[in-house]
Amino acid sequence: MNYAIAALFLPLFVHILNVWNWSLGMRGAFQKAPLRTPDTETALPPLGVVLPVRNEAETLPKLMGDLAKQTHLPLQVIVIDDRSDDGTLQALEDAGPFPFQVTTMSNPGQGKKAGLSAGILQLTCDWAIGVDADTRLKPEALAAMGRGIENQAEEKDMFLLPLRIALDASSAPDNLFHLLQGLDFAAMQGWAVSSVQRGQPAMASGGGWVWRAKTFPHNRLHPEIPSGDDVFALAALIQDEKGHRVGWINDPMAMVSAAPMLNFGALLDQRIRWGAKSTQYPRSLKSARRVALAVAAVHLCGLVLMFIHLGFGISFWLIKSIADVLYTRQMAKQYGLFEKRTPANGFALLMLALAHPFFIATTLLLMPFRKVRWKGRPAT
Fold first, then answer.
1. CB 59 within 8 Å of CB 259
2. In the prediction, which pLDDT does 41 show?
3. By C-alpha distance, which of 132, 138, 147 is closest to 47?
4. Would you tell me the crossing angle of helices 343-366 and 176-197 to the nearest 10 degrees?
5. What DSSP string describes 172-224?
6. How many CB atoms lie within 10 A of CB 149?
7. In terms of pTM, does the model score above 0.85?
8. What SS3 class is residue 43?
9. Greatest CA span in the chain, whole angstroms?
């Protein structure tokens, strides 16, 4: 019995080791660049923004407004419409004119992958910025991205962008549900960024990244799988033994703020989509597979311990919660999720630590049965 209990604690040890490594990898990961004058800003590389959209009449004009206020304007913005039926293109026209070239086109396929590929092929500049239509940007965001590219352009083909969950580009999440999503996502981003920092990229998010247009792996996105453009694009570099050509834009001014899910059902569906995608990761993403297995194992073993020995089970979850709270608190500060010190911050961290195991278990249990749709289409 003692050996069995010790074995059940082994995944917890692995989890703590992972969290410790991610925390170390994120120390100094954000470094705000010194201010530059307008004259030097014009020397930044031209950037193109590629926006595959479907039913984004409410969100797309807000993002376009953010792009119009950039201190370093995009050279061109390409909007690829995927048969929207909510007036997305009309909303885009009503929001203009814009101080940059805007090109609209119809998605030649179905889904984000085909639209993304078609948009990048239309670019006349070297670098493609990929953000979702429901994201928001600070006025200095593209300038910060340009500086990051300029500093590493000869060495990299892909860059991760700082990405967080928040409705507004300049403030923290506005309620507890949004903040819990932001904290959970920031913890995942810490893993992704620290992996890149170590030269072993494991994960990317299509909500915020940059690609050298001529190296984008158009024919390796697996269109037969509805989601995962970000994962398969990253995997293509790793498969070609070019993982070292994945970089990180470390200026917090480049932060992309993505909209949170509006309710628990939508959040659950989002995580089921992500979980289903993880079962299709290419072998080259072995690090991501290891982390996914480690997360599943630690939750399963903690649950088993609660049944066979309540005292050890409580100790297991207490140790895990302390490690998670300390790590997530670090990520929250770096991603601007805590505007100031308040008791509410500690309450949110505690709530996440307590609720997260149940949420993970619910997601895993429902994954085989819950048929998820995204914007009117099957998502998995």
1. yes
2. 53
3. 147
4. 80
5. --SSHHHHHHHHHHHHHHHHHHHHHHTT------TTEEEEEGGG--GGGS-TT
6. 21
7. yes
8. coil
9. 71
The per-residue pLDDT of the chain, averaged, comes to 89
For residue 49, report the phi and psi dihedrals to the nearest 5 degrees. Answer: -110, 125
The backbone torsions φ and ψ at residue 160, rounded to the nearest 5 degrees and listed phi first, read -85, 145
Buried b (16+ CB within 10 A) or exposed e, 301-312: bbbebeeebeeb
Provide the pLDDT confidence category of residue 372 given band limits of 50, 70 and 90: low
Query: If you search the block for the tokens 């995942």, which residue do you land on?
Result: 188
Contact 115, 80 (CB under 8 A): yes
Q: Contact 74/45 with Cβ under 8 angstroms?
A: no
Structure token digits, residue 172: 């923290």
Q: What is the DSSP letter of 87?
A: -
What type of residue sits at position 233? A
Exposed (0-12), middle (13-18) or buried (19+): which is 21, by Cβ within 10 Å? middle
Dihedral class, residue 341 (left if φ above 0, else alpha if ψ from -120 to 50, else beta):
beta
Higher pLDDT, 179 or 377: 179
pLDDT at 40: 54
Q: How many CA atoms lie within 13 A of 343 on its CB side?
A: 0
AA letter at 164: R
As a whole number of angstroms, the distance between CA 11 and CA 17 comes to 10
Q: Tell me which DSSP letter residue 46 carries.
A: P
